[in-house]
Design a protein that fits this description.
The complex is a heteropentamer. By secondary structure, chain B is an alpha/beta fold. Chain B contains 14 helices and 17 strands. Helices cover 37% and strands 17% of the residues of chain B. Chain B has a six-stranded mixed beta sheet. A four-stranded antiparallel beta sheet of chain B has the order 2-8-7-4, with no helix packed on it. A four-stranded parallel beta sheet of chain B has the order 11-10-9-12, sandwiched between helices. In chain B, helix 11 packs across helix 14. By secondary structure, chain C is of the alpha+beta class. Chain C has one domain. Chain C is built from three helices and five strands. In chain C, strands 1-2-3-4-5 form a five-stranded antiparallel beta sheet, with helices on both faces. The chains are: A mainly alpha, B alpha/beta, C alpha+beta, D mainly alpha, E mainly alpha.
């Protein structure tokens, strides 16, 4: 009995020591996850999620403080990518697969106040004071900040017009479960 | 000549009899022609004319833009009445930039000087002439031919293959062309051979076209051109399939046929090359098969580019019954037209009006994993698995199973007993992936812009602060000096 | 105690795990002491029970302690002996037969005159619902052996009916009863051969329980 | 405070049931649930271990360091299981003959370690004990139901051999529901266990969905399964 | 605007219903022969199986709130029940047929998601379920008593056999595989066991005790060839399965003829022919590629032979098929067609620099 007691105690002590050492040797510094999450997010730092910029949102996501559906400009695709990265089973059906949007200036209403121009996080609005502004399509992330500040409602988010170049086939709908009775 | 083993492929009902025995007829000149500015793979052409201007047949109206592009020419003489969007021959039904020409009825060619002997030209000059004539791959790929010629010459292409494989059901325009204008084609072939410096020339024609084979063999007699019968199957007209049948080699997935020393051109392209080099005539018309169970008198027509499809149907006696579907191109890869008011373009080989019986059932049922599609796929893909992944929303998994190698030939959908629209899935996924790719590029670009903006605002803020500090220091210095001065004054006063 | 501070130390991990090991081992050792005699008694009771099943009647010795190890056809066999007034009245031992899906282990009891007092299957892997009718819980078949001996029925009739014997087979399964009959017959033969030794009253008592664990576990 | 306990109870017994919601501890579940009695016995033994391990681990939670916590928990759980094992063997030997082989399986029941990690290591002793008890009872409930389904379908009886587990006073529970039943062996064998668990989980989900749609003012229009 | 249809705008004249109908047509001769051989009880079993499959599938579809008609009309449920019925003892009680069919269509097929989603062959899964649950009913065979012969039960007697379980005396018999297995344990050699019990010609024609539709090797072979001719199945899996049984049988019977039966015996007994031509060619549960199907068939054959020879049960086709069904995803993962212009690993062929040849 004494043998059992001593041998098991010593074994426990040695294993404990090994684990303690291992914990020090293999300590993970920082959080690689946050960096990967930042890569997934749009990076326009628009702040619509309520966190300070995309890095703040990534931090919150990594700590589980925010749902993967937090990014409105990212839409469904980003939500799915985040869920996959975090390994969570998110219900993304609530996130409407937003038609890609873009800001457009209605020239007859624009007074050239430059407010939209100042808040745009990606410098996608061109123009100067007292001149009608216009949107540089390639740079607009449809974050909607310009829409918020525009005093005359001349800036509005509109669906991106489909072009021959961007058009592609819809997903076929004739499916197995299509036979579901109404 | 030994032929090499092929795999996959299907044998759809040919329906060639509808039009194969009808000799080529020239379509009477239509009143208006709608010539799209992009009829080829690559960048669209830039319009060179203004509304109201008068043009001659063969006059350039759109200039090629960039390396991979082709010019567009007026298909007849007349007046430009519009330059703007017109419904394109595209499944989306969207409009594309199009030049509308009102014919003056004279059909007068632009005067050009042509060489007495085309073989006296330098190879580069032939390629240039082909490029200037706006010739693109007429088998349907519409890749600018001059680009291929130049690339092949640089790659020391040894073998020239002329693709006489017309495997799409109904379509007989190449068949007729080979039967009726074989010696012109052979001359075109020899010009291409000369232009790229190829050694061997093979013309592959499916064995179910004995008349075309005979006439081409007769025309090729005594030249270095070999005419070879290949098995009749679909997709024999796929250039890589033709290469495999004739040479036994495969084009690397990441490469081009020039990488293995082979250049493939369609017979109709060879015919157009001959016209362009010998007579300086650009590509302004082509042969189009009008066929299908609903067409009263199917036939093969020589049609100016830009003619509306409805004109073709009208000329062929209209419809004998209401067509269930109008198709531009062949039934395997063609696109459905929801209106016949779209123009014929350089890549249009046929227009079909099909009855419901010819189309067959399209009601989809669950996949039973019968793997008919696997056996039918000429590329060696697993269509059923790819479609299952795409259906589940995982297009990337489909890519890892070869989605990007898919040529959308339609063999899998054709044989599927469950009538699953497999190719539709693949094209959806390809489009989706392309959109993702574009989105990613845009995201990177906007991120850079946002970072720049943040850096700039920080810099401005910093500069403003520095300036403020400077001002403050200056003010303090001034005040100090003033004080000192005041002090001094007081002292002086005192 | 301020564990917060201590927990970071390296020696603390060793001490903690060692300590827990010490405490738990001690607990187990104590538990073993407290229960070992009861467990042994319970196991002995089990064995006793299974012996009584194949050996009905009153005997005045402790069968578990009155054993004999003999060389059987397939290695050593522990024979338990039942006495009345010092005279060996019956013996119990284990026999094995080949069933459909593996060996079938049986306990069988034989009285002094060579008549079977009972047979029970203690372990088998036969198909449930088909071959498991050899269990008393599933059928009465196993009782057929009681009272039989080597001469009754005659040796050539020691088999299932299908093979011309007297024992029933069950519908759908022939192999299982065939295996059991063969095993029981083998047990009788073994008894017949070693009869003198088994029934020899003078063999000194030997303390074997504790060493022989065979059949000791349920 | 009682709020906590009622939440623990509701969660453990139904919402977060070890078998039907977490699908943990399937190895012992499949192994013993060939009869309702076996399921009940295994469930009770697991409950005992769960209560003891949760309370013990909760009481030392401040002393246990991150690095060695899993070995410590495992050693404690294994010890407790062994104690239960030898106790039943010594003092309830008939029950041991029914459950004996499976008692040791409790060590491998991930639900026990799971509760230690997820609850006991973070909560005070009493709630931890309560959690262990209720999780254990939820487990017992699940095992008994599965056992009952398998037993009824497999052999046509219910609570066979209950007297071995609960004493002769409970032999009234032993029912023979279907006389002259031929037996449906598949249900007694492991595949039957999986089938029973699968159907019962499906049943639980249907009940949950029904009650959810009753609770909601606007019932979901979508069909249950599509 | 109407949705634009994607190409192709032509389709081969084939459909799921047609595939199922052709397979049923191919099964008809063997089935009719079974009816004739075993009489009215066999017909009852077959009818009960098919009815139960239809009703069971309809019930599940109702519960799932899916349209019933299109699914029942595709014929896959009927075919499953048909195959199951052919593998049952011809005089099995009605509830065996019903329970097996319900298990096949509800648990083995619809619970996995319906047609095309089930990993295991539903008919074989149901057969295995019945075999382990009701070993007695599933291994009670009768000697053939062709319709119209003296021993054959009449229509009413047939109903009694199927629905009340009454057995006609003297009809019980063992299947060949079961008989040999039983005799082996008695230490009786193969030759003796087979004498008087096994006549290759009878086996070929199917006149022996066995499952409803498994005995007529010749009719099953003909049905399989018909399906190959119609291009519903390919030769790979069936031929590989027969090879998988014949080759080890040949080797082992050559080494020790007293203990191991020869290839002909294996080919003509049990469910091998039905399995090779109708079970393992089920597209849903077999691999996608020709090579994969060959490997699959070979595995089925080998496992069948191993289970028959050394296993606990006399017949191994159902178990072998289920084991290989489980291996199908692995086979499909490793055996893929080579993509044009790529090597087997999916890497693009190298682009060799060309030299100008003069």
């Amino acid at each position: 009995m004494i043998t059992a007691l001593t041998s098991l105690t010593i074994l426990g002590a040695i294993l404990g020591l090994i684990l303690g050492v291992a914990a020090r040797v293999f300590r993970v510094e920082g959080n690689a996850l946050v960096a990967e999450l930042v890569d997934i997010l749009p990076g326009s730092q628009c702040g619509q999620c309520g966190f300070p910029g995309c890095a703040g949102a990534a931090q919150a996501l990594a700590e589980g403080r925010a749902p993967v559906t937090l990014c409105p400009p990212g839409g469904r695709a980003v939500a799915i990518a985040l869920a996959a990265k975090l390994g969570v089973d998110a219900d993304v059906s609530g996130v409407q697969d937003s038609v890609p949007m873009i800001a457009e200036v209605r020239e007859e209403l624009c007074i050239g106040c430059t407010r939209c121009f100042k808040v745009c996080p990606t410098d996608a609005i061109m123009g100067a004071a007292q001149q009608i502004h216009s949107v540089f399509r390639e740079a607009c992330t449809a974050c909607g900040k310009c829409e918020e500040v525009c005093p005359t409602e001349s800036v509005k988010l509109q669906p991106v017009p489909v072009t021959l170049h961007a058009w592609y086939w819809n997903k076929p709908v004739t499916q197995t479960m299509q036979t579901v009775a109404a | 000549m030994k032929l090499f083993k092929l795999r996959g492929g299907v044998h759809p009902e040919g329906w060639k009899g509808l039009a194969a025995e009808r000799a080529i007829r020239v379509l009477p000149l239509p009143e208006r022609l709608f010539v799209p500015l992009q009829q080829h793979v690559g960048a669209p052409a830039q319009p060179l004319i203004k509304v109201g201007e008068h043009v001659l047949k063969g006059q350039i109206i759109g200039a090629s833009q960039g390396f991979i592009s082709a010019p567009v020419h007026a298909s007849t003489s007349g007046r430009i009445v519009a330059i703007g969007d017109y419904t394109a021959a595209h499944p989306s039904g969207l409009a594309a930039p199009t030049v509308t020409i009102e014919s003056d009825g004279e059909d007068r060619w632009l005067e050009t000087d042509s060489p007495s002997d085309p073989f006296s030209l330098l190879p580069e000059e032939i390629a240039a002439a082909v490029g200037a004539a706006g010739i693109v791959g007429l088998g349907g790929a519409t890749f600018p031919s001059a680009v291929k010629l130049n690339l092949s010459r640089k790659n020391n292409v040894r073998t020239l293959i002329i693709n006489g494989g017309e495997c799409e059901p109904y379509i007989t325009c190449d068949d007729r062309l080979m039967r009726e204008r074989a010696s012109d084609i052979i001359e075109g072939v020899r010009l291409i051979r000369y232009a790229v410096g190829a050694v061997d020339v093979m013309v592959g024609i499916e064995e179910n076209k004995p008349a075309a084979l005979a006439s081409m063999r007769a025309a090729a007699a005594g030249t270095e051109v070999q005419v070879i019968a290949v098995p009749a199957m679909y997709p024999m007209g796929w250039d890589k399939q033709m290469i495999r049948a004739l040479t036994g080699r495969e084009v690397p997935a990441d490469g081009r046929s020039a990488d293995i020393g082979v250049l493939v051109h369609n017979v109709a392209t060879a015919y157009a090359v001959r016209d362009a080099v010998r007579f300086g005539r650009p590509l302004v018309s082509r042969l189009v098969t009008v066929s299908g169970g609903a067409v009263a008198e199917p036939g093969n027509l020589e049609v100016p580019i830009g003619t509306l499809v409805e004109t073709l149907f009208q000329y062929c006696g209209g419809f004998s019954e209401k067509p269930a579907r109008m198709v531009l191109g062949g039934p395997m890869m063609g696109i459905e037209l929801f209106t016949a008011a779209v123009p014929v373009v350089k890549g249009t080989s046929g227009v079909l009006a099909l009855t419901a019986r010819e189309i067959g059932s399209t009601q989809a049922s669950p996949c039973i994993r019968c793997s008919s599609c696997v056996r039918a796929c000429p590329v060696g893909l697993l269509p059923l698995e790819m479609a299952a992944h795409i259906r589940a929303g995982d297009s990337n998994a489909a890519v890892s199973r070869g989605l990007k190698d898919c040529i959308a030939c339609g063999c899998c959908s054709f044989v599927c007993p469950s009538h699953i629209p497999l190719v539709h899935y693949f094209n959806f996924a390809k489009g989706e992936l392309m959109e993702q790719e574009r989105g990613k590029l845009k995201q990177e670009a906007t991120r850079k812009l946002a970072d720049e903006r943040i850096a700039r605002t920080q810099r401005i803020e910093r500069e403003r602060q520095e300036a403020a500090e400077k001002r403050k220091a200056a003010r303090e210095a001034r005040e100090f000096a003033a004080k000192q001065a005041a002090l001094q004054t007081t002292t002086e006063v005192a | 105690m301020n564990f917060q501070k201590l927990r970071g130390e390296l020696y603390y991990q060793a001490a903690l795990l060692g300590g827990v090991a010490l405490v738990t081992t001690a607990a187990l050792a104590l538990a073993d002491r407290a229960t070992s005699s009861d467990i042994a008694a319970a196991q002995a009771r089990d064995m006793q029970q299974s012996l009584t099943q194949v050996l009905p009647g009153e005997y005045d010795n402790d069968l578990l302690k009155d054993t004999l190890v003999l060389n059987g056809p397939n290695g050593e066999v522990t024979v338990y002996r039942a006495r009345r007034a010092g005279r060996v009245e019956a013996v119990v031992f284990k026999v094995s037969g080949n069933g459909y899906a593996g060996p079938i282990d049986c306990m069988m009891g034989i009285d002094r005159n060579g008549h079977i007092t009972g047979v029970r299957v203690i372990k088998h892997k036969e198909t449930p619902g088909l071959g498991d009718k050899i269990e008393p819980a599933k059928g009465h078949w196993i009782y057929e052996f009681e009272g039989k001996s080597l001469g009754d029925p005659p040796a050539e009739k020691w088999g299932v009916k299908k093979d011309g014997g007297v024992f029933d087979q069950f519908a759908g399964a022939t192999i299982t009863p065939r295996g059991v009959v063969k095993a029981v017959k083998g047990g009788l033969d073994f008894f017949d051969k070693q009869r003198a030794q088994m029934l020899d009253d003078t063999v000194p008592l030997r303390e074997t329980f504790g060493r022989t664990t065979e059949g000791g576990k349920p | 405070m009682s709020n906590i306990y009622s939440r623990i109870t509701r969660d453990s017994l139904w919402n977060n049931n070890i078998v039907f919601a977490q699908t943990l501890g399937l190895c012992p579940t499949m192994a013993v649930t060939s009869t309702a009695t076996n399921g009940l016995g295994m469930g009770l033994a697991t409950t005992a271990v769960l209560v003891a391990s949760n309370m013990l681990i909760s009481s030392i939670r401040h002393a246990v360091s991150e690095e060695v916590r899993i070995p410590v928990y495992i050693v404690i759980i294994a010890t407790l299981v062994t104690l239960v094992d030898v106790s039943i063997n010594a003092w309830a030997h008939d029950l041991y003959k029914v459950l004996g082989l499976y008692i040791a399986l409790i060590v491998a029941n991930c639900a026990v370690l799971g509760r230690a990690e997820a609850y006991a290591a973070k909560n005070p002793i009493l709630p931890s004990g309560m959690d262990g008890l209720m999780m254990g009872l939820g487990f017992t409930f699940a095992l008994t139901i599965i056992g009952a389904v398998r037993e009824i379908l497999g052999t046509g009886t219910l609570f066979a051999d209950a007297h071995l587990l609960l004493g002769p006073a409970f032999s009234f529970m032993e029912l023979k529901l279907i006389p002259d039943y031929k037996g449906f062996l598949l249900m007694i064998l492991p595949p039957g266990g999986f089938l029973a668990v699968g159907f019962l989980i499906a049943g639980k989900r249907i009940i949950d969905r029904r009650s959810a749609s009753v609770a909601e003012p606007v019932p979901a229009a979508a069909p249950a399964i599509s | 605007m109407n949705a634009i249809a994607h190409s192709p705008h032509a389709h081969a004249p084939i459909s799921v219903n047609r595939v199922m109908a052709l397979v049923m047509l191919a099964l008809t001769p063997a089935t009719l022969f079974g009816f004739w051989l075993y009489g009215w009880p066999a017909i009852n079993v077959w009818v009960m199986s098919l009815l139960a499959a239809l009703l069971g599938e309809a019930l599940v579809l109702r519960l799932q709130q899916r349209a019933v008609r299109p699914v029942l009309m595709d014929g896959s449920g009927l075919l499953t029940a048909w195959l199951l019925a052919l593998s049952l003892p011809p005089w099995a009680p009605w509830w065996i047929a019903v329970l097996g069919s319900l298990f096949a269509v509800i648990i083995s097929k619809q619970l996995y998601g319906g047609l095309g989603q089930n990993p295991f062959n539903p008919a074989m899964a149901a057969r295995v379920m019945l075999l382990i649950s009701f070993p007695m009913e599933m291994t009670t065979w009768v000697a053939p008593a062709p319709l119209g012969s003296i021993h054959a039960p009449g229509w009413l007697e047939g109903l009694a056999v199927t629905f009340t379980g009454s057995q006609v005396d003297g009809m019980a018999s063992a299947s060949l595989l079961g008989h040999v297995k039983t005799e082996f344990t008695r230490g009786i050699g193969l030759e003796q066991a087979l004498s008087g019990y096994y006549a290759p010609l009878d086996a070929l024609l199917g006149s022996r005790a066995g499952s409803l539709g498994e005995t007529a090797a010749l009719f099953l072979l003909a049905g399989g060839l018909f399906l190959m001719f119609k291009r519903i199945i390919t030769w790979h899996a069936p031929v590989a399965m027969l090879i998988g049984v014949v080759v080890p049988a040949l080797i082992f019977s050559a080494v020790s003829p007293a203990h191991y039966a020869g290839p002909l015996y294996h080919l003509l007994s049990g469910g091998l022919m039905l399995g090779a031509f109708f079970i393992i060619t089920d597209p849903v549960t077999s691999p996608n590629t020709a090579t994969g199907q060959f490997i699959f068939g070979l595995g089925c054959g080998l496992l069948t032979w191993i289970i028959r020879t050394w296993g606990g049960y006399p017949e191994g086709v159902a178990f072998a098929v289920m084991l290989m069904n489980a291996a199908t995803p692995i086979i499909d993962h490793y055996v893929k067609p080579r993509i044009y212009g790529r090597n087997r690993k999916g890497v693009s062929m190298s682009i060799e620099p060309l030299k100008k040849e003069s």
